[in-house]
Amino acid sequence: MECDHKGQFRTSTMPETLSIQDIVDVTYEKYRSIDDGVVATYIPELSKADPRDFAICLVTVDGQVFCAGDWEKEFTIQSICKPFAFQMALEEFGRERTLARVGVEPSGDAFNSIELDPRTMRPFNPMVNAGAIAVASLIKKESAAAGVRAYVEKMQLAAGRKLKIDCSVLASEASTGNRNRAIAYLMLNFGIIDEDINHTLHQYFSQCSLLVNCRDLAMMAASLANMGTNPVSGEPVFDFQYVRDVLAVMFTCGLYDHAGEWAYNVGLPAKSGVGGGLMAVVNRQLGIAVYSPPLDAKGNSVRGIMVCKELASRLGLHAFEFTNVGSSFVQSLF
Ligand code: DON
Questions:
Q1: Nearest to residue 238, comparing CAs of 250, 256, 252?
Q2: Which of 94, 108, 185, 316 is most buried when burial is the number of CB atoms within 10 A of its CB?
Q3: Taking Cα atoms as reference points, which of 85, 225, 210, 212 lies closest to residue 160?
Q4: Using CB atoms within 10 A of its CB, is residue 145 exposed (0-12), middle (13-18) or buried (19+)?
Q5: Could you report the per-residue pLDDT of 112-131, keeping only the tens digit for each?
Q6: Which is nearest to 277 in space by CA: 155, 141, 116, 146?
Q7: From the centroid of its chain, how far is CA 230?
Q8: pTM above 0.90?
Q9: Catalytic residue check, 79
Q10: 18 phi, psi to nearest 5 deg
């Protein structure tokens, strides 16, 4: 890869000089016709997603936005709510009290595993369902509506626009979420969460049912990348002293039992959701989001993984890329 001084770059596979928008467009076209994977059906309402939908967005920490495809199409955030809820718990309760309820250890198991860390009886980490339910139990408020409102308000600041809950997806998950109910009861048994299981699950299911588009996710990722401040609105959203904690857990646990391969191949803190969203953070540089509903066997967006791998490689974004040419390319634009 070669860079000139104006932020244009070349790769051996792409002889022409390309801007960031060109790279987003070329990547979109390259993966547009991939149709591997299957749309999630275990939450019945999610099965209505159109498998052809596809979008890519990048937002830099100086507020430039680059999008391709169906970036305005809304979908539910699902598990991508988990790092943000963890951030909210850290902000409200601090590290000690939050980590008393949830660990930071990768489980290497599926997102919906019914298991706790046998040493501590805490959920392994806040990215698997058990950990996210423990976090939801912490951040819920006395009234169910107030807890959901606080979460939606935080997410609106991160997206830079008004957001709402998809009530059909919420009802669909609430009526079929017995596995999550089982996980919650297991944690009640070990004193990790309080006995208000329905209230806690309502908080968790509502968090998952937030409607976002691909640009919103990229903006949220860019807010994490930008030390907690939304790069377009300039609004402080997240307490930056905890962003480090959240990115570390995203890096090690964000893609569940694919997390090791992801760290090896892509090398970025990231989070996936069964709605088809995938968000990655290039610390202090940019947020990346992909939307494509068909998932692999581990519940991660097939095209989401392909696109992030491609962008990380072309822009040199891997955290441990020793040349890190792409990252310095992005910096040269600032
Ligand atoms: O708990 C669930 O089953 C969903 N609401 C969220 C799961 C999810 O998105 C897993 N991510 N890939």
A1: 250
A2: 316
A3: 212
A4: exposed
A5: 999 999 999 999 999 999 99
A6: 155
A7: 16
A8: yes
A9: yes
A10: -125, 145
